[in-house]
Write a structure and sequence with these properties.
InterPro entries: PAC (IPR001610), PAS (IPR000014), PAS-assoc_C (IPR000700), PAS-like_dom_sf (IPR035965). With about 300 residues, the protein is an alpha+beta fold. It folds into 3 domains: about 45 residues, no CATH class; about 120 residues, Beta-Lactamase (2-Layer Sandwich); about 100 residues, Beta-Lactamase (2-Layer Sandwich). The chain has 12 helices and 10 strands.
């Protein structure tokens, strides 16, 4: 704190002991803030090749929520709003006459059910100009696995001039859609071979795309799961058991380090073969971010006498 700030704070305290206690608490809050900023910068760096914008809101989806609690510089650059202008507001400030209500209803339905959402719609900048916003929205959970916030990764795709069908056809070729999605995904054949993986999966696991094509899916999981996974791919109804399967697990980085993920698998009938598409989400970093946000929120409430 600046000398003048310390002097003003001392004048407000009833004695030196109170002053030292409050000063120590403020220093702790500043340290937590700096840690949170660093971890958020790591999160932004992890998605910078896929999405420019990050927005975090509270969990409430009913009017007037969800309130915005964080946006990064990319959000401000895309929308023209400053951080101060959007804090406490809702993402509805980006909506307008051409925003597809059907997409918004589907978004809300999935989020109410605790599911992720990937989609796009017309949004509006502060100056009223239109842009096509691609979202990838996920729940952020605390260490008990309870959702606490929503994080939305966003990308202005206006200039790409894509046909709407490219975003809603589940039978589209893998690379055309997933290479530019924040989703971390791989396609696997009926024998467990990795057919294709997007950049996000390669970055997450530390393998090159060429190396991934020589891998079996069970090689990414701890050894104790190898037998059960192999069995799924040899059973007659194995593919049906994998369709719509949601899971939480540890997968292995090429270096051997564990990564906590959650995901879902589904069976797709493509033009020339049936494949199992697995989409996963790295929740290790998200938990670290939310731990810092939660501690900061608790400390602030504690200082103001609102801690539970």
């Amino acid at each position: 704190m600046l000398p003048d700030d310390l002097k003003n704070l001392r004048d407000l305290c009833k004695d030196e002991q109170s002053f030292e206690k409050i000063k120590k608490s403020i220093a702790s809050l500043v340290e937590e803030r700096d840690k949170t900023k660093h971890q958020l910068s790591l999160l932004e760096a992890a998605i910078k090749d896929d999405y420019e914008s990050i927005l975090i809101t509270e969990l409430n989806l009913e009017e007037p929520g969800p309130e915005i609690v964080y946006v990064n510089d990319g959000f401000c650059e895309i929308t023209g709003y400053s951080r101060e202008e959007v804090m406490g507001k809702t993402p509805r400030i980006l909506q307008g006459p051409k925003t597809d209500r059907e997409v918004l209803d589907k978004l809300k339905e999935r989020l109410i059910n605790g599911q992720c959402f990937f989609g796009q719609a017309i949004n509006y900048r502060k100056d009223g100009s239109e842009f096509v916003n691609q979202w990838d929205i996920h729940p952020l959970t605390n260490e008990e696995g309870v959702p606490t916030h929503w994080v939305s990764y966003q990308h202005d795709i206006t200039e790409r001039k894509r046909a709407e069908q490219q975003f809603i056809d589940t039978k589209i070729e893998f690379d055309e859609l997933r290479e530019e999605s924040y989703c971390t995904a791989i396609d696997i054949d009926s024998e467990g071979n990795v057919i294709s993986a997007n950049n996000a999966f390669a970055a997450l696991t530390g393998y090159t795309k060429d190396e991934l094509k020589d891998c079996k899916v069970w090689e990414f999981f701890p050894d104790k799961y190898t037998h059960s996974l192999k069995k799924r791919f040899t059973e007659d109804d194995g593919e049906s058991l994998l369709n719509g399967k949601e899971f939480k697990a540890l997968i292995k980085h090429k270096s051997g380090l564990p990564i906590q993920v959650k995901g879902q698998s589904r069976v797709l009938d493509l033009k020339d073969q049936q494949v199992i598409r697995v989409e996963i989400e790295n929740i290790s970093l998200q938990k670290k971010v939310m731990d810092s946000l939660r501690k900061r929120h608790y400390n602030l409430n504690k200082e103001t006498g609102n801690a539970e």
